[in-house]
Amino acid sequence: MRAKDFLSATDLSKKTSATLDALAKGEPEKLIILKNNSPKAVLLSMESYEAMQEEIEDLRLTALALARTETFNEQKALSHARIKEKFGK
Fold it and tell me: How far from chain centre, in Å, is Cα 89?
């Protein structure tokens, strides 16, 4: 971590607008907020937050798909033809 990735809570309160503008521009990508020299929070741009949420969802779906492949039973599965027959078209 670089020193510019950290911001004190006091500085954040004094420079809120400028800090939010910088985050929106991606300068920096994230800020770790310090209170009494201890990390207390992380501040992200909406773009970074949304990208992180999408990646988490992709990983969750991948894990779910992998778990399902381990328990897949071909004998109990319905064929594509049977699904079409059952649900039309």
Answer: 38
3-44 belongs to CATH 3.40.1620: yes
Q: pLDDT at position 29, please?
A: 87
Alpha-carbon distance 12 to 75, whole Å?
60
The first and second tokens of residue 82, run together, are 């049977």
0.85 surpassed by pTM = no
Domain boundaries, the chain: 3-44, 48-87
Tokens of 18: 């400028």
Exposed/middle/buried for residue 38 (C-beta within 10 Å: 0-12, 13-18, 19+): exposed
- Given a contact cutoff of 8 angstroms between Cβ atoms, the answer to whether 24 and 36 are in contact is no
